[in-house]
Specification:
The protein is an alpha+beta fold and about 110 residues long. It contains 1 helix and 5 strands. Helix content is about 40%, strand content about 45%. The protein has a 5-stranded antiparallel β-sheet with strand order 1-2-3-4-5, with helices on one face. β4 and β5 form a beta hairpin. The chain is elongated and about 70 Å long.
């Protein structure tokens, strides 16, 4: 019975450690998406007719973003992956020079 309890406690500890690691990766991936969104917003602020994309490389990983013009708004799509944890964001932005205003922000799946 003592061995069964010991094995059970070990299993719980391993599961908690694995879940903690996934949580850290999720936060890192989210932070990378935010970094790409900030870079895209910066590019739009510097050049209101900016469309295109780019990458941001940081110590914890990298992300990519794209900006397209849709009517009077711009759409930003950003994506990052840390290990196998993927985060994506889609933003709608209005650009009334000199202001750049986020009108919609969604975390999206594929």
């Amino acid at each position: 019975i003592v061995m069964v309890i010991g094995a059970f406690v070990s299993l719980i500890g391993f599961t908690s450690l694995r879940n903690s690691s996934l949580l850290v990766k999720s936060y890192q991936s989210n932070n990378l998406v935010n970094a790409c969104v900030e870079e895209a917003l910066f590019q739009i602020q510097q050049n209101s007719i900016f469309v295109g994309g780019g990458d941001v490389n940081l110590e914890i990983g990298s992300c990519s973003y794209g900006v397209e013009q849709v009517g009077g708004s711009k759409i930003i799509v950003a994506s990052s992956t840390v290990s196998f944890v993927v985060r994506r964001a889609r933003l709608t932005v209005s650009t009334t020079t000199p202001q750049v205003t986020v009108t919609k922000w969604q975390e999206v799946a594929d």
